[in-house]
Design a protein that fits this description.
675 residues; 17 helices; alpha+beta
């Protein structure tokens, strides 16, 4: 076995590889850019080597720099993680020339299946059903428009070397094909150092289901079940689960056997994923093969008990697989939610900055990758992350902060465990998608398992603006807020140094205002908690050990309720189940007077184009004096390896431009003004 492995990656996947290597007794080497000097993966590794400036195309994807780090460290093998150089055949060749093992498939398999164009040709030759498209390379934007018309709109414009949603655009007309081609080409070049593009038919209403395969160099191969990855945004997966609530055993077996056969056809040896789109009749079509470890691999590990990273290392060391297909048993249900540094209230635009608070829910201590959860009462919480409290979320890399996973014997229990885990996850200092993830977990379509890849687009067509809790849930939150406010008021009565005859008295009657509703309540406290009586005669029992200053409250209000708590004058900011609420707790007289207070009016920014995220201006498409039409591109902003085209919301005239290509802007900086 290897003595030392270098991880040619960063963030949570580097940390994940370190955990398995450590379990196997293998020393690890991290590489890092200037931006990652204090990163968690650098701290976890046995040693670390600096490889250059923050941009990935000057550090993490520069093969020569990574090879220098390998030589300096004396590493015998390299695990590439995902993204960066993980599917780069030139990198694998460079390692082979140096006599260093690549913890991944052979070069030939990478070239044949890692390239989406070539892999589809091979699949077609093998009589595998594939999505209609143009498999050749596209020269320019006009060529892309011509091919798109031949294939038929809508089309998917994709980077040949792409992954993780980078370099992918859906085009519904010629103009979108023209713009999408150039943006996909730019993103592909920046993210993968390969700007080749191809086009295929975009199949509407599909499910995205993928099969995990594991093969060795001795001709053995198994499939480890499927992952349902249909909930996606901008072609990037957000929620994954295993198994799929849609597949039956016969379809699973057919997809699995076809995937293994395809892998064996190219001499595959390592962990890999064969992706399919599946229609409503369970017909499945080969989409692509990812010749690397997938982001969402933890859910497969949770239901099979197989440590995929360990298996990849063992295969790279020449060992045969220790399991056969008969040994693979799917047990229970696993859910993964990807926590992104993206602000759901700003159309999920990237958010950067310092993590002033980062407190994930407690992981199940008994669980480690490579072990399968056991008894019927077990619930597992796992959080794969690459950040820590006080760390910086950089504009240079992918915005994923963590992958929160839960396992339970049934899907319903795994989802409920995820709801509690999301409510317990404390993240402050940046915008993040925790509220949105909570909303998805409670959505009827997700709960029924009926989602397609159009789920987010269809269910949130106007973006995400928070969750309006049903009245029964609001009453529970109101009851908790009343009991908590009473505790805080009692604390305030105990402040020392009061003036004589200025004793503060805590009343029993309050009015709790939240999400546009007022609940008049009466609080009756005893040593075990409080009984909250509402005006309609209903009562709720509240028990909690919350004390003022705690930012997380685990409350029992006729059942468990987890609240993130922020202090506000006269109340709290409470967050739960995707709802972000300003909660006022007032005396009846205060509530009466509050209704007379005027509302604060937000400033008018309708004649300005504001930068929606911290980022770099790539180009400005208009000039002062130009008349622009609704939907016309105004400028392009790049952040976290993604290009975002900002468009005019109405027909108007540009009167002032405050930024130029190359400028770095903060959130809400004024890019241009209109008449």
């Amino acid at each position: 076995m290897f003595d030392k492995i270098l991880i040619a990656n960063r963030g949570e996947i580097a940390c994940r590889v370190i955990k398995s290597a450590r379990k196997m007794g293998i020393k690890t080497v991290a590489i890092y850019s200037d931006a990652d000097k204090q990163a968690l993966h650098v701290q976890m590794a046995d040693e670390a080597v600096h490889i250059g400036p923050p941009p990935a195309n000057q550090s993490y994807i520069v093969i020569d720099k990574v090879m220098d780090a390998i030589r300096k460290s004396g590493a015998q093998a390299v695990h590439p993680g995902y993204g960066f150089l993980s599917e780069n055949s030139k990198f694998a060749e460079a390692l082979a020339a140096e006599g260093v093992a690549f913890v991944g498939p052979p070069v030939g398999a990478i070239e044949k299946m890692g390239d989406k164009i070539t892999s589809k040709k091979i699949a077609q030759e093998a009589k595998v059903s594939t999505v209609p498209g143009y498999m050749g390379l596209i020269e320019d934007a006009e060529d892309a428009v011509k091919i798109s018309n031949q294939v038929g709109y809508p089309v998917m414009i994709k980077a040949s070397a792409g992954g993780g949603g980078k370099g992918m655009r859906i085009a519904w007309n010629d103009e979108e094909a023209r713009e999408g081609f150039q943006s996909s080409k730019n993103e592909a070049a920046n993210s993968f150092g390969d700007d080749r593009i191809f086009i295929e038919k975009f199949v509407t209403q599909p499910r995205h289901i993928e099969i995990q395969v594991l093969c060795d160099a001795h001709g053995n191969g198994v499939y480890l079940g499927e992952r349902e990855c249909s909930i996606q945004r901008r072609n990037q997966k957000v929620v994954e689960e295993a198994p799929s609530p849609f597949l039956d055993e016969a379809t699973r077996k057919a997809m699995g056997e076809q995937s293994v056969a395809l892998a064996k056809a190219v001499g595959y040896a390592s962990a890999g994923t064969v992706e399919f789109i599946v229609d409503g009749d369970k017909n499945f079509y080969f989409l692509e093969m990812n010749t690397r470890l997938q982001v969402e691999h933890p859910v497969t590990e949770l239901i099979t008990g197989v440590d995929l990273v360990e298996q990849m290392i063992r295969v790279a060391n020449g060992e045969p697989l220790s399991i056969t297909q008969d040994d693979v048993k799917l047990q229970g249900w696993a859910i993964e939610n990807r926590l992104y540094a993206e602000d759901p209230y700003r159309n999920f635009l990237p958010s950067i900055g310092r993590l002033t608070r980062y407190r994930p829910p407690a992981e199940t201590k008994a669980y480690t990758p490579g072990t399968q959860p056991g008894g019927a009462g077990d619930v597992v919480v796992r959080n794969d992350t690459g950040v820590y409290e006080g760390g910086e979320i950089s504009m240079y890399y992918d915005p994923m902060i963590a992958k929160l996973c839960t396992w339970a014997p049934t899907r319903d229990k795994a989802v409920e465990a995820m709801r509690v885990a999301l409510d317990s996850f404390e993240v402050e200092g940046i915008g993040h998608n925790l509220p949105f993830l909570s909303a998805v977990m409670d959505h009827p379509i997700f709960m029924a398992g009926d989602m397609t890849t159009a789920f987010i687009e269809e269910q949130y067509p106007d973006g995400f603006d928070g969750v309006a809790l049903p009245e029964a849930q609001l009453k529970r939150v109101a009851a908790a807020a009343a009991a908590m406010y009473r505790v805080a008021e009692i604390r305030r009565t105990r402040v020392s140094g009061r003036m004589d005859n200025h004793e503060r008295r805590v009343g029993k009657k309050w009015v709790v205002s939240l999400q546009g509703q007022d609940f008049a309540v009466k609080v009756k406290a005893d040593k075990d908690g409080s009984t909250i009586k509402f005006d309609d005669g209903s009562k709720l029992r509240v028990a909690s050990d919350w004390t003022p200053g705690d930012q997380l409250a685990e409350v029992d209000v006729d059942g468990p309720l987890v609240l993130k708590v922020g202090k506000l004058p006269g109340g709290f900011r409470l967050r739960t189940r995707g709802a972000d609420m300003t909660v006022h707790v007032r005396t009846p007289r205060q509530a009466e007077l509050a209704k007379l207070m005027p509302e604060k009016v937000a400033p008018d920014t309708s004649k300005m184009l504001l930068c929606p995220m911290p980022g770099l201006i790539v180009k400005v498409d208009v000039e002062v004096g130009d008349e622009v039409q609704e939907g016309q591109a105004l400028c392009t902003v790049e952040a976290m390896k993604m290009e975002n085209i900002l468009r005019a919301e109405k027909t108007t005239v540009v009167t002032k431009i405050n930024a130029a290509a190359g400028d770095s802007l903060a959130v809400d900086d004024v890019i241009m003004e209109f008449e």
